[in-house]
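Summary of Year 1 activities. Much of the first year was spent building the evaluation harness for sequence design. The harness presents a backbone, in tokenized form, and records the residue chosen at every position. We chose the following record to illustrate the format because it has been used consistently in internal testing since the harness was completed.
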């Protein structure tokens, strides 16, 4: 029964997977499907049922967070983490000549790209 309730939501997320950005409309569609699936499971029949459904979701999230923290702690211990975070300092600041040459190179690359894609030397779209 649970597979039949979650199939529609999976289809929604499959359609969202190809998009590069989530729009408010696509998020609203996903939330509407979640609410519909919850109502089918009688999760919103009363205030008590809503609290019960929320407690199930919260407890599942809490357990997942604890398991993830344990994996993170184990991974850090395997890499020799002792509680102190040592950062490397950048002692030398870039010179104005280096900054200027980088900006000049970027300008040349921008002009070349606009010339190749625009069909002419200084045609910007």
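For this record, the design step produced the sequence shown next.
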């Amino acid at each position: 029964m649970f597979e039949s309730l979650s199939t529609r939501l999976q289809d929604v997320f499959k359609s969202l997977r190809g998009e590069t950005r989530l729009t408010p409309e696509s998020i609203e569609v996903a939330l509407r499907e979640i609410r519909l699936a919850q109502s089918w499971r009688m999760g919103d029949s009363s205030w008590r049922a809503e609290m019960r459904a929320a407690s199930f979701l919260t407890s599942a999230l809490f357990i997942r967070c604890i398991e993830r923290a344990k994996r993170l702690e184990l991974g850090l211990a395997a890499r020799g983490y002792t509680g102190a975070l040592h950062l490397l300092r950048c002692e030398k600041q870039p010179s104005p000549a280096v900054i200027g040459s980088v900006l000049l190179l970027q300008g040349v690359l921008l002009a070349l790209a606009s010339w190749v894609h625009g069909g002419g030397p200084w045609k910007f779209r």
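The helical segments are 2-17, 24-40, 47-78, 96-118. Quantitative recovery figures across the full test set are reported in Table 2.
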